[in-house]
Amino acid sequence: MRVELLTIGDELLLGDTINGNAAWMGRRLAESGIEVTRSVVVGDELDLIIAAVDEALGRADAVITTGGLGPTYDDLTRDALAKAAGVALIRDPTLERRLRARVAAADRPLAPMALRMAEVPEGAGLLGNSAGSAPGLRVALPGGVAYALPGVPFEMRTIMNEVVIPELVERAGAPQVARRTLRTAGVWESVIATRLAEVEALDGIKLAYLPSTGEVKIRITASGPDAVQRLSGAEELTRDLLGTLVYGTEDETLAGVVHRLLIERGRTVAAAESLTGGLIGAELTAVPGASKTYAGGMITYSTEMKHTLLGVPDDLLREHGAVHPDVAAAMAAGVRDRLEASYGVAVTGVAGPEPQDGHPVGTLYISVAGPGNEPTVISPRLTVPGASAEVRNVIRRLTVVHALELLRRDILGLDAEHGAGESEEDREEKG
Amino acid sequence: MRVELLTIGDELLLGDTINGNAAWMGRRLAESGIEVTRSVVVGDELDLIIAAVDEALGRADAVITTGGLGPTYDDLTRDALAKAAGVALIRDPTLERRLRARVAAADRPLAPMALRMAEVPEGAGLLGNSAGSAPGLRVALPGGVAYALPGVPFEMRTIMNEVVIPELVERAGAPQVARRTLRTAGVWESVIATRLAEVEALDGIKLAYLPSTGEVKIRITASGPDAVQRLSGAEELTRDLLGTLVYGTEDETLAGVVHRLLIERGRTVAAAESLTGGLIGAELTAVPGASKTYAGGMITYSTEMKHTLLGVPDDLLREHGAVHPDVAAAMAAGVRDRLEASYGVAVTGVAGPEPQDGHPVGTLYISVAGPGNEPTVISPRLTVPGASAEVRNVIRRLTVVHALELLRRDILGLDAEHGAGESEEDREEKG
């Protein structure tokens, strides 16, 4: 069962919008055992859309389009599919009624243009869209089936999850592929790959390493009739070989795992940030229910405020400046105590573009102070090539990852082991 | 001059990576007056890559590929282009020498596989890549020219800016298109569009509205031989009609504009955050040089800490809870004073998923306290449909935008005018 994606919209070709929809769809389809063989973006031009749909169905069994279902003159998907199918566009009375009711309830006048959203290629199936204005469409074409979905991400995901994926899965039959993703943070890809040679050698098992800033995901793919069992064995072996390097699976985030560990232990954390400017707090509070585990934070961006707000000793700052392991430790203990939390996590360092107090860009001290403990301090080595503006943001993000990983390890009572940071050879960001 | 983009890599079809490269390239090419007519993603399969390159050059004058230039077995772009051109892959002695020298300098052994990066389709031009390992390629094919670039974003951008775009611009001749983007925050798209009817009516002028969370960009495109002058006139009229709604142009960020306004006036700002958890501080400190304008912040996530750390009166919190305009005002004045800043900005509200103290999800109070002023407080109306997890993040992001916009207007001495927040009809996120 081969599927192609067709994303429609000038703004995507012009780069105004990044194609997050296609990435989400590719991923959900892959999780469901359905192979996406090509992903295409075309602009809002009738003939180009028709051509792209026809070509896609010349190669694959189904094409899923997003975009072009709105009411304005550049929304052409209905027209394109009707032409490709050789049928007329007809006004659906139920859709029209619903549209008029919706608009009246919002106390707005109905622009005549909006009635285009009640038009449907004759014979097309409607894919219910409780979330938005226009339904999705299923249109039978000579080369296969075309699914047309709205471009608004939440609406697209709703219809994909509720209608399209179940249909495609049913048509495809039993999946012969099973997948599992394990997540690590603060460890070099090459360190992980070296440990997993045994897993790579297993029959019917493929490993993919998916690095992002400071993290590496390992995707294990098992294929064949007993894919599920093979996957289980491969996962067990991988976990044996990686031990505590693995912090979570699938879509778990480091912050989500930290939150869960704190909840389980009835504990809280406070964060003292300098170069990260609030990113650690933002990450921790992105987790629903964070009010139970995140006590609050201080962004002590200047040297002076580290003393005023966190109680870092004046003479320590005068002698060493703000970028020093003892300063990080004092910040961690200070924020823990002032916010009355179980744990304090603190970061101080040099994001750039300029060195600070004689320390080069990339110097970093991270500390975690636990309940009644002496603070732990680490200093990950970061080497990030590239232009100034990018270096700064990459260093900030790496700092967040290293800080959350140190916190996780501290809560679990593990050694503060880090495989150092990003190096030029290991930096394999694609796309 | 028509160009197609071809992004190569399984991880893109599987949705592991979002196609940021294609968006960046589409944008830079459009800025340079070059039209991207299609953008395609294929996986790491030799025949599919060759077919996609040939099809692209059947439609367009040039195709730009990214990805597949690394050393591993799934890096197939060199092979594909050599086959498409009907030539052999040959080992380039200069490349080999450079590769060996680089690896020796990093004190690492040379994996034989790495020598694949010294192979080149016979006759291909090398596009110097000072930033990375493998050079880009220029390959002449029957249907046109193929440019092959590395997938690592920084390397791709370097070669695009230094070599490919200048070449394409020269081949294309004088651009007949000129563009300008103006940026607004906290205003409904429909409000803006209504004001700009006169601009839409101008000859040779097209307007595109590009909404993102809480912001709307307006792209003015002028075409024809006198595009530059037409653009100038259209921009002037647009600015007349929108007045102070426009906060910046092109890639300026709201935080960058706030930083600039503070620097110009020798002033600083501190932020007191609750539901945003540090996002405001993170946004302000993302601007290089922020240490001159951002004094620091407090993330007072709990009701209690608003009193302990910011001095919000106990009885106010006991009577009204944490979500109240007077609490926001006290937070703003409190953080301004405690961090000895010129301005304090504060937010309190309900991000969800649960209501708080009887306030529904989306309740929001934002305050700015200026030098020696009474704080200003606004309460933007947010209506965000959708599933809980998404609502929470969208509300947090909208809060950041509204807070920064209020700060900007306060610094400039403007009314705290906001066109309210996102509503279901106006939410036009694509992709």
UniProtKB/TrEMBL annotation, chains A, B:
SMART domains linked: MoCF_biosynth
Source taxon at top rank: Bacteria
Pfam families linked to this entry: CinA, CinA_KH, MoCF_biosynth
Domain MoaB/Mog: 4-171
Membrane spanning stretches: none
Family to which the UniProt record says this protein belongs: Belongs to the CinA family.
NCBIfam families tied to this protein: cinA_nterm, PncC_domain
Identification of the protein by name: CinA-like protein
Organism: Actinomadura rudentiformis
